[in-house]
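Issue: ligand-bound run for zinc ion - logging full I/O for the record.

Environment: standard queue, default settings, no custom constraints.

Inputs:
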Amino acid sequence: MKKINTLFTTTVLALATHAAWAQAPAAPQAKDATAATRAANQSARAQMPLGDKQSFEDAKRGLIESATDQLILGPTGRPVWTLKGYEFLSKEDAPDTVHPGLWRHARVNMANGLFKVTDRMYQVRGFDLSNMTIIEGDTGLIVVDPLVSTETAKAALNLFYKHRPRKPVVAVIYSHSHVDHFGGVRGVVNGDDVAAGKVKIIAPAGFMEEAVGENVIAGNAMSRRAMYQFGMLLPRNEKGQVDAGLGKPTAPGTISLIAPTQLIEKPVEKHRIDGIDIVFELTPGAEAPAEMIMYHPQFKVLNMTEIATQNMHNLLPMRGALVRDALSWSKYIGGALQRYGDKSDVMIAQHNWPVWGGDRLQRTLKNQRDTYKFLHDQTVRLMNHGYVASEIAENIQMPPSLSQDWSTHPFYGHLKHNIKAIYQRYLGYYDGNPVNLEALPPAPAAKKTIEYMGGADAVLKRAREDFARGEYRWVAQVTSQLVFADATNQEARTLGAEAYEQLGYQMESATARNAFLQGAAELRNGVPKLPSFVSASPDVIRALPLDMFFDFLGVRLNGDKAQGKTMAFNWHFTDTQQKYVLNLENSALTYMADAQVPNADATLTLSRATLDDISLQKTTFPAALQAGLIVVSGKREKVGELLGMLESFSVGFPMVEPRTPR
Ligand SMILES: [Zn+2]
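Outputs:
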């Protein structure tokens, strides 16, 4: 019965996009860069426009006050945000253990504080993974994207008030449905003022469904994978985490959500909000399922939100998501260029820094547009010649004309991964070779392979020779097979860790670097013991539609345990007057909304508020039963039987070593 208790904890963890905060100690096992890695990074340096230092100027322009030393704490005293620990980035020259392009990007991302964009328009940057844009309306403030958590949002607004008149926030705009663009809303406004109509909340169509829904069903898997993407368990140093591409990573503090009071539903809508004209343009299905850009004609400012930032974005986040559409993405950027390019003096975004000057921002938009179009078209061309994803990824290099623009570099996305994502969008995981319809999974395939190769010792000997030659990709692959054949093979784990690590040092993509270095750490030390904390967000849980609650219940059902069982339950939610039938048959849990059946095994009567409290771990299912908050009529034992078939998920599952066989 207790299992229902953990219903949403891991889900909500995933909603934070980020993993647990754990400022790990410096990894003593981390090795120096090898000669091969030094050579690879030097050769990368030779190709790059290192003379172009414009980004450093852009990132500092308009600075009013920076706050490099601040530490923002969460409700339990846990640090939510700090740039401390990144002092090592003050050196201009990249160390051998960091790709020189990434090093430069990580340095530009250190710019932080309150910035003036133009009269009446400001940004707080480097207070979280994302930026907060603040516009001075006629009577109050318009806040675009209140960061990830209430603590950072509040600190950002306070810094603004230190320098500008303390006007109330009269509108909040969520540019899109990712948590780093809405989570801090209660740090800048309170719910009563929104309910009283004093504050408008504006968002793109589909915002709520996507904001609460994107991470629910697969939330646990995404949480774990996000740890690899953001590198939050890694130490901050030259051999560890240096950046996350879009900014420095954050730990979730208090995540909040207030539902929009006004949706932008047409492809283009023009509104005057507190005297400020804003042209909203929807850009769904690109960076987020629900997203929009904004143009401010009075200020000649184009806000590309997260559709064009200072990097090649990802077409499929490494945490996992539905794959994004590179073709639409390119068209949205092209459309913005066409409509606003020659009417804009500055282009801002909700991550990274602005681009000033009509010519420069038009060139940036053109290059961003062409980056996604080039990737899309070349991938599909090779796909139509019959090549599979891994072959295509090996055969596409960005054209030098684009690579000379820093903003096209894959600091957040990863070139090979993006190419594979385009393949996946059109053709899926299956490469057309039927052997892959029935390929053995990693562990049994690895056991056979290693056996055929003459056993682990023979493989290790040759892998060491390849390591000495700098063939890290292959050494990582073959040692991974050794580990999947036998997780206790310490020599294989160590050599594998060293290969992952050198690959990490060579990655220009912050997220790929983080992934390799986290993988190396786990090969050395095993799956980390993750701090147990619940970052459940009451706002998000309350906003989840009941359908989603029952969908999630379905994915927790152990089909084997349910075999041969047939059950039906009526659910009645007294406060919302909703009725559901939950049906178990054929090892599948299905439901009907707005329905009750006469022959149910039991009827559960409860309030939605009680269900939310259980999800938030404020109470448990049995305790709620005991307290009479859930009333069961009919066969009470059947409820217990159903709960006994539901599994909970643990976020600490293995990623680079064999999983427990089921
Ligand atoms: Zn974002």
